[in-house]
Write a structure and sequence with these properties.
- The chain is mostly helical.
- Helices cover 59% and strands 0% of the residues.
- Helix 1 packs antiparallel against helix 2 and helix 6 runs antiparallel to helix 7.
- The relative contact order is 0.06.
């Protein structure tokens, strides 16, 4: 679905095209090997025609600029073409340009194809721009916005948006004025999202908030049916408190009650049970080598 007003438009470029790189003067040399390969692998006539057509398009079609790809990304009828165009922009050096950021925001919010939206969300998060946090928060709280501003996200889109939010929080790239909304959003996603991946990402995001309500939410989520969610809740609890109870809900609840006034007294420390049995890279290499040797030649049972 095109997101340009007035429906789909044919891609065009109002700017002068840059000089195209020189192409081979003898592209027909590729045709013979392709036909031979297709015949050897049992390709039918239709498949050979399709191969030749794709090669011809690659060889003779003009190269587009990143700006032209953005026009394709918001106007092409075919979702695969839109996704390919936005992927090319995301991989280019231009992805932090103002026009690219605005395009990513529009596609993340209004595109109907889930995978195309996900590419835009990931590209936007990579920019580190303050508007990235604003956009993913809008996606995760889409019910608070008019439908013409945010197309309802699928589970796949919510997953990528929650991951982007957790990454932005970990990198300190969420503006201060949006931190409270980010906190409540992660709490709501962890409690109520039906997608396990979104809940995992929300639990990871909560690891950035040393807050009593966050601790209570993470402890309650240790009862989640999905152990991957439970594991991430434990990881965030360890990060916030410097304590571990190995996903034991009762132990965490008892600890919370007994330490209500000093929940974060040990924050930043690594619990004894989680400290590695080595102190440097040389000891780590010796430890892992010994592990491999014992696995290959276990010796007599103890």
């Amino acid at each position: 679905m095109s997101i340009l007003p007035g429906g789909p438009r044919r891609p065009h470029d109002p700017l002068p095209r840059p000089a195209l790189p020189a192409r081979s003067s003898r592209p027909w040399l590729l045709i013979g090997p392709v036909i031979g390969l297709c015949l050897l692998t049992g390709c039918g006539e239709k498949k050979i025609d399709a191969k030749l057509d794709s090669i011809a398009q690659e060889l003779f079609s003009p190269r587009r600029t990143p700006e032209q790809y953005m026009i394709v990304a918001v106007s092409a009828e075919d979702a695969d073409i839109r996704r390919d165009a936005i992927t090319r922009i995301a991989r280019a050096d231009h992805h932090k340009k103002e026009w690219a950021i605005k395009g990513f925001m529009a596609i993340a919010c209004l595109e109907s194809d889930a995978q195309t939206r996900c590419v835009a969300i990931r590209a936007l998060a990579r920019t580190g721009d303050p508007r990235a946090a604003e956009t993913v928060l809008k996606l995760l709280n889409y019910r608070d916005h008019p439908a013409e501003e945010v197309y309802p996200p699928s589970e796949l889109v919510r997953w990528d948006a929650a991951v982007a939010l957790a990454d932005l929080l970990a990198a300190g790239q969420v503006p201060e004025e949006q931190m409270e909304l980010a906190r409540t959003t992660c709490i709501q996603r962890l409690r109520y999202d039906t997608d396990r991946h979104a809940r995992i990402a929300a639990a990871r995001g909560l690891g950035s908030f040393p807050d009593a309500e966050v601790i209570a939410t993470l402890i309650a989520a240790l009862r989640d049916d999905d152990f991957a969610v439970v594991h991430q809740c434990e990881e965030s609890l360890v990060r916030l408190t410097g304590v571990t109870h190995s996903t034991d809900v009762a132990a965490w609840e008892a600890w919370q009650e007994g330490n209500a006034e000093q929940l974060f007294a040990q924050a930043g420390t690594v619990p004894e049970q989680r400290r590695p049995p080595y102190n440097n890279s040389v000891e780590k290499m010796a430890y892992e080598t010994r592990d491999v040797v014992e696995w290959l030649w276990p010796g007599p049972a103890k």
